[in-house]
UniProtKB/TrEMBL annotation:
This is Histidinol-phosphate aminotransferase. It comes from Devosia crocina. Residues 30-353 form the Aminotransferase class I/classII large domain. GO terms for biological process: L-histidine biosynthetic process. GO terms for molecular function: histidinol-phosphate transaminase activity; pyridoxal phosphate binding.
Length: 364
C-alpha cells in the first residue's frame, strides 16, 4: 500500500461541487445587489441597538444554549423553548442534521430544484442524494414519495423553495408526511416563511408537535440579519437530544443572540418588511410576466424569471449588470440555464429592473 505524500480528504469529498453564492458585482462597483435575497429595509433598529450593546461584553463567552434567543422565539411563535435549537445560520443546523442522521449507504431525497446546500451536506455525510422531478417548478408529493427507497433516511424540502419561490400547501405537506415511514426524517426548511402570503400555507409547526420524525428549520438571514448568521430549528425531544451531543458549545455568538431576540420581538418592523415584499413582488411579477418572459409564481422574497433560452437569460443578466443591478444566475447551481433569480429590493431598484427588462422584451 502506497502512503500518500500529504493528507487526503475522505472518499467523495472532492466530488462535491461547492456552494456558489450570488455575485456582488465587480470590485468598486456601485451596482445594487439583488442576488442574495437580503432585506431591502435593512435590519430592525432594535436588533441593531442590541447588537451594538453586545460590544461591551466581547470578552465573555456567549450562553451556550442561546437561552435568551430561544425564549424570545418561544414567546412570539408559541413554541416551548426546550424544543428550539439555534445555530450559526440555518446551514449550521442542516449540516448537523445530515451528520446525525445520514451515513455511508444511506439516501436523502430532495426535489430537482431544491436548495443547493442539500446535496453538499448529504454527500459530506457519506450518503447519496436522490433527486425527485418537479411539476412546473414545484415539488411534487407523489414524485417525492416515489423516490423513497429502503435506504432513505431524510427528505429535504424547502418551503417555499429556493430558487423557484414555489410552495406546498399545508394539506400537501401533511400528505407527504403521511406517506413516509416513521424512521425517515422530514426536514422542512422554512427560510422564506415570513414572506408567504398564501392562505393555505403552514410552517409545519403542528406536524412537528404531532410527529416524531419532522423538524422545522428557519433563519434570520432573509429578515435583515444575514451578517449575524442566526438559524433556529424546532424538533422533537429525541432529535434535540441527538443534535445537542454534537453541536458546537458556543455556536451562536453573543451579539447574534441578542440581535436575534430583539428582531424576533420587533413585530412591527417584520410586518413592514413583509408588506413591502408582498407589494413589490406582485408589482414586479405583473410588469415582467408575458413580456418575452415568464415569472414563476413566488411566495418568497424573490422571483424566478424564465427567458426563451440560455442566451436570452445571459443577455438579460449582462444588460442588468450594465444598468447597475446584480441578479442571480441559476444555471450554474441549479441547471435552470434560462432563468434569473431577482431579489425583491427597494422601490427604486424594482422600477429600474422592470424598466430594463421590459425594454429588452419590447425590442425583440
Amino acid at each position: 500500500m502506497t502512503t500518500p505524500n500529504r493528507p487526503t480528504p475522505q472518499p467523495g469529498i472532492l466530488d462535491i461541487a461547492p456552494y456558489l453564492p450570488g455575485k456582488s458585482g465587480a470590485p468598486g462597483s456601485k451596482a445594487v445587489k439583488l442576488s442574495a435575497n437580503e432585506s431591502p429595509l435593512g435590519a430592525s433598529p432594535k436588533a441593531v441597538a442590541a447588537f451594538a450593546a453586545a460590544a461591551e461584553h466581547l470578552e465573555i463567552y456567549p450562553e451556550g444554549s442561546s437561552r435568551l434567543l430561544r425564549e424570545a422565539l418561544g414567546e412570539i411563535h408559541g413554541i416551548d423553548p426546550a424544543h428550539i435549537i439555534c445555530g450559526n445560520g440555518s446551514d449550521d443546523l442542516l449540516h448537523l442534521l445530515a451528520q446525525t442522521y445520514l451515513g455511508e449507504g444511506d439516501e436523502a431525497v430532495m426535489n430537482r430544484y431544491g436548495f443547493s446546500v442539500y446535496p453538499i451536506i448529504t454527500k459530506a455525510a457519506g450518503a447519496r442524494i436522490v433527486l425527485a422531478e418537479e411539476t412546473d417548478y414545484t415539488a411534487d408529493v407523489d414524485l417525492l414519495l416515489a423516490a423513497v427507497t429502503e435506504r432513505t433516511k431524510i427528505v429535504w424540502l424547502a418551503n417555499p423553495n429556493n430558487p423557484t419561490g414555489t410552495y406546498l400547501s399545508d394539506a400537501e405537506m401533511r400528505r407527504l408526511h403521511a406517506g413516509l415511514r416513521p424512521d425517515i426524517l422530514l426536514v422542512i426548511d422554512n427560510a422564506y416563511a415570513e414572506y408567504v402570503t398564501a392562505a393555505d400555507f403552514s410552517v409545519g409547526q403542528m406536524l412537528v408537535d404531532q410527529a416524531d420524525n419532522v423538524v422545522m428549520v428557519r433563519t434570520f438571514s432573509k429578515m435583515g440579519l444575514a451578517a449575524a448568521r442566526i438559524g433556529w430549528m424546532v424538533a422533537p425531544d429525541h432529535v434535540t437530544d441527538a443534535i445537542h451531543r454534537i453541536r458546537g458549545p458556543f455556536n451562536v455568538n453573543l451579539p447574534a443572540q441578542l440581535a436575534g431576540a430583539a428582531a424576533t420581538r420587533d413585530v412591527a418592523f417584520n410586518e413592514d418588511l413583509r408588506a413591502h415584499n408582498a407589494r413589490w413582488r406582485e408589482w414586479l411579477t405583473a410588469q415582467l410576466h408575458g413580456n418575452a418572459m415568464r415569472v414563476v409564481p413566488s411566495q418568497a422574497n424573490f422571483i424566478l424569471v424564465l427567458f426563451e433560452d440560455a442566451a436570452a437569460a445571459a443577455k438579460a443578466f449582462e444588460t442588468l449588470l450594465k444598468g447597475g443591478y446584480v441578479v442571480r444566475e441559476v444555471g450554474p447551481s441549479y441547471g435552470i440555464t434560462n432563468g434569473l433569480r431577482i431579489s425583491i429590493g427597494s422601490e427604486e431598484a424594482m422600477r429600474g429592473v422592470a424598466g430594463i427588462l421590459t425594454e429588452m422584451g419590447a425590442g425583440r
